[in-house]
Structures are given as structure tokens and as C-alpha cells.
Amino acid sequence: MAAAANAQVVLREVMDIRQAAEYLGISGDTLYRYASEGFVPAFKLGNRWRFRKSLLDAWMDEKSGVRPPAHNVDPSKKKPVARAR
């Protein structure tokens, strides 16, 4: 019975590269390259890549053509984006 509990994968909201690669079904090396290139939503905590499950799910929905619920934002109420110097 303990073996069954250990075999169960616990999906956390914030995953490290190994957990996220397993979740996405790709190698850790590929995910590292994708994160470094900005292809997948990721952030660095110290010198380690981290991945939010909810952002990966939204990214997969976007890439697969599934439309997430629209956020009704009035374009006139958006803040202007500051230019890089």
C-alpha cells in the first residue's frame, strides 16, 4: 500500500525542471532549452528554472488552439508600456 502512495505523482503549482519536463512529456534538456529561449513560460528562482503549472496549462491550450476564457479589457484603460532604454 505504501508503494502505491509513492508511485502517485504529486503535481505542484510550482515545479522544477524535472517535474515540469515529466508533466509535459519531454526531456529535461529540451525543456531547459525552451525555457532559456523564452518558448515556454518559466522563471528563474536563483539560478534554477521554475514552472507554474497553471501557466503551462494555459500555454498548452494556446498552442493547441484551445481558446481560454476571454478577459474583457477595454484597450483605452490599458497602461502604456514603458520603452526600454
Describe it:
By secondary structure, the protein is of the alpha+beta class. Helices cover 42% and strands 13% of the residues. It contains 4 helices and 3 strands. A 3-stranded antiparallel β-sheet has the order 1-3-2. A hairpin with a 2-residue loop joins strand 2 and strand 3 (48-52). Helix 2 (17-24) packs across helix 3 (28-37).
Instruction: Give the helices and strands as they follow along the chain.
Output: HEHHEEH
Which blocks of ≥5 consecutive residues have pLDDT under 50?
3-8
Question: What oligomerization state is this entry in?
Answer: single chain
Q: How many helix segments?
A: 4
What's the N-to-C terminus distance?
60 Å
In total, the number of strands is 3
> How large is the radius of gyration?
17 Å
Write the layout of secondary structure elements.
Layout: H1 2-7, E1 14-16, H2 17-24, H3 28-37, E2 43-45, E3 48-52, H4 53-64
Antiparallel strand pairs: 1-3, 2-3
Short description:
The chain has helices at about 1-5, 15-25, 30-35, 55-65, and strands spanning about 15, 45, 50. By secondary structure, it is an alpha+beta fold.
Keyphrases for this structure?
85 residues, Arc Repressor Mutant, subunit A, 3-stranded antiparallel beta sheet, 4 helices, disordered N terminus
